[in-house]
Every structure is written in structure tokens, then in C-alpha cells.
Amino acid sequence: MKIRDFKALRFDISKRPYDFSASLGEKGLGDNVRSFLNHLNVESDRVYFMNQTHSDHCVVLDDAHDEEDYFGFRIVPDTDALITAKKGIALVSRISDCTPVLLYDPIKGVQACIHSGWRPTVKKLPQIAIDTMRNRYGSSPKNIYAYIGPCIGRESFEVGKEVSAAWRDAFPFHREVIRYFDKDRDYIDLKLTHIRMLQQMGIPDDHITVNSADTFTDPRYHSYRRDKPDFGSNALISILK
């Protein structure tokens, strides 16, 4: 089975013309959220955004946590991963080139929605989320299914030497995922980096689904690098039914 085969979990990645930018204001953002939930064929008045700070912070919504009103929805401050086992709660990760990751344990009925920018990636946030699922809910990595969504592709993610140095320090498999280009810049494969991280944690290869789209080159998606300064936000939205 793949993660999309489970009827108890509904999720998708938005495409244009959907936009989940705060700049849309209450009506614009609200209309996009409600329309996309309708696309998923689910209803929810409990929609949780993250105040994404490119951290390694992971919040379990089923435990005590801070939250604030956000254009009629809810937002959890200073976090880049949300976890819940409660049904009917929609989790939102906003991305414009960063890597969206969804984890789902059908045995324990728990999901994790992750915003993995390059800093959360080198901080190994997806692995922290798996550890949290294991410690809080008793999840076993062998039972977890994963989805790696559209992000900037390996031919497009040009970085300076300080970023590739952070990759070398963080990942023993760095030679697989860094393409050294010249004295000033390199290219990094974000999707393969996340595949290797998930495999390191014990998630079976056939439990990992990867969306191959490159947000930078694919006009269906918003891209920070391509569209700045007037860039929009894609969203990974997931909900347990």
C-alpha cells in the first residue's frame, strides 16, 4: 500500500490558483482554505497553521500547547511540524520551494505534517517528528508511511558553500545528494535527502511516496525563488477522518 490508499487519511498539495499567503487577508485565505477542503471532500472548523520559523520544533496538538487566532483559523507559534491523532483536525504546511513531508501511522492513527525548509532539514526535523510519534503514541517506524511533496528540484536548488557544508556536517550520505559545481555554488537534492533520512529511521522503502514535481520549473506551483518578491504559497493540507 501507499499513503494515499488509506481512507482514514485525506491530503493533497495545492496548485495554482490556490494561494495560502497571509497577504491575502482573512477573506482571501479563508476562501482558499474552505475551497481546498471541499476539494478534499472533507469539512473542518479546526484548521491549524504553523508560524513556520525554520526550526526543529515539533508540537503535539493532543497535548497542552500554545495557539493563536489566525484569520479565523488557528496558528501554533514557532513550529515547523504538527502531530495529532485526533480526527477532523486539518493540518497545514505552507511551502514555496521547501519540502512538505507527511507521515502517517495507520496502526496508531496518528499523522505528522512537516515544513522542512533547508534549515529544518539539516536539523533533521522529519526524524524528530518520527521520534515524537514513537515516544508519544508508540508508533513503530516500520508501520509509518511517508509522502514527500513538491519542492525545489535537484537541478534548481543552487546553494552557497555554507549550505553544502551544513549538509556535509549533518548527513553521512552527503555525497549522494550534493552536486559540486564550482568554487562558489553547489546543487542539492532535497527529495533524496529526505528519502535517506526516512530510511535511516527505519521506514520501509515501499512506504515512501515521492512527488517528483520541481516547484521552481513547474508553473502549476508557487515558487519563492522564481516569483519573488511577489510569491505565493502552496500548502500541504492533511486530515484524519
TrEMBL record:
Similarity section: Belongs to the purine nucleoside phosphorylase YfiH/LACC1 family.
MF GO annotations: copper ion binding; hydrolase activity; S-methyl-5-thioadenosine phosphorylase activity
Pfam families referenced in this protein's UniProt entry, alphabetically: Cu-oxidase_4 (PF02578)
UniProt keyword ATP-binding, yes or no: no
Coiled-coil region list: none
Protein name as catalogued: Purine nucleoside phosphorylase
Job description of the protein: Purine nucleoside enzyme that catalyzes the phosphorolysis of adenosine and inosine nucleosides, yielding D-ribose 1-phosphate and the respective free bases, adenine and hypoxanthine. Also catalyzes the phosphorolysis of S-methyl-5'-thioadenosine into adenine and S-methyl-5-thio-alpha-D-ribose 1-phosphate. Also has adenosine deaminase activity.
Statement: the UniProt record of this protein carries the keyword Zinc: yes
UniProtKB keywords: Hydrolase, Metal-binding, Transferase, Zinc
Classification via InterPro entries: Cu_polyphenol_OxRdtase, Cu_polyphenol_OxRdtase_sf, Cytotoxic_necrot_fac-like_cat
Reactions it catalyzes: adenosine + H2O + H(+) = inosine + NH4(+); adenosine + phosphate = alpha-D-ribose 1-phosphate + adenine; S-methyl-5'-thioadenosine + phosphate = 5-(methylsulfanyl)-alpha-D-ribose 1-phosphate + adenine; inosine + phosphate = alpha-D-ribose 1-phosphate + hypoxanthine
Gene3D superfamilies membership: CNF1/YfiH-like putative cysteine hydrolases
